[in-house]
Amino acid sequence: MEQTYKKIEKCRICGAKNLIKYLDLGETPLANSLLDTSEKTDGEIKYPLEVMYCKDCSLSQLSIVVNPEILFSDYVYHSSISKTFQDHCAEMAEKISRITNPSKEVLAVDIASNDGCLLKKFKNKGFRTLGVEPAKNLAEDANSKGIETVCSFWTIKTANEILGRYGEARIITATNVFAHVDDLNEFLKAINILLNKDGLFIIEVPYLSDLFTKNEFDTIYHEHLSYFLVKPLKKLYEKHNLKIINIEKYPIHGGSLRIYASKNTLKDETNVQDFLRLEEKETLYDIKTYEKFNKKVINVKGELLKLLKDLKNKDKKVGAYGASAKGNTLLNYCGIDSELVSFIIDDTRAKQHHFAPGSRIEIVDTSWLEKDKPDYLLLLAWNFAKEIKERTSKIYKSEVKYIIPIPNVKVE
Ligand code: DWN
Description:
Shape: globular
Number of helices: 13
Distance between the termini: 46 Å
Number of strands: 19
Bound molecules: ligand DWN
Helix content: 25-40%
Strand order of the largest sheet: 8-7-6-9-10-13-12
């Protein structure tokens, strides 16, 4: 794909052209394309950020696909920065090692393995591990830590190369990547090449039910092409003779589904029907539900801007914590810049001393808190509020107040 983005004409799962746009967050810069200057140059590219609903299979999906080479070849997000996510990975490795007997003969492959956060836990359990990561900087980081990683996007070619060098995989995981992929058919064809006949294919994806019920519109950005329900996923898996055998809900990243699947069609589905009933009950197969969502989004924008402007009028100092991708959607949709939020703290070294896309708010490290004590911290990484509060309370005790923007604006 030569150009920077392409428009979606048909649903990526069922091929229908019956796509209805229900949310428009405006022309928005790429959430992880950090800037080297706060100067408002005209060089920053913005793209439409619109979500469409497929009336045939109920998949929500962006109206465009930005070239993945632009998004993922050099990636600033390091999974291991969060202890909460590290603990989540440890739980997953523990659970999966109980289902399968790990040994050096049992290959566990993680797709979009980032800095090796999950594979490190699998390796500790005794699995033979291999990461597949398209970002050169992350693949180098993982390899430097002894987590063998192939620097590549997940493709049929890559699956065949791995099969030839390492043999079949008993476990293939894909956490926070399935929503990022345009060609899901190639993705699953490649899974079927590498996964052994008794193997487990496990994805983790943000759940659209949580996005709607908890108003998590800030998790909409150009990296997230699809916003899943079980109904369209079941349809997609069946096309590839993969059977969903269990689904688990986790609070991570605002609410995610962990979906276990196998080639072995003899295995019984367990709770797929429970999720289909839940989605029906939440009217998530009805376009009217989607048309109403816009109003909840506009409310958050109004409440957040009113609070920040009131605090500015009272000469209160407001900073933010967590230069997250979701935070950039929130800042840019609300039109918030350094006039209302003075800085963003982030513990990711690769993000520090850059400027957030669009808002151009400076990203700094926690030492900034000691010299420029804020009265309020806007938690742009609200999904890690507990962990971030623990970090900052060591510096502030109870002097700083936290603004939690999602699901509704509140001060704690
Ligand atoms: O799908 C994706 C999710 C899983 O991660 C990726 N496409 C991109 C990314 O989205 P995000 O940036 O919104 O994710 P997080 O994990 O909510 O971002 C948290 C941010 O907060 C990171 O920049 C790290 C930072 N952080 C920190 O500085 N100190 C987080 C914690 C917990 C901390 O203690």
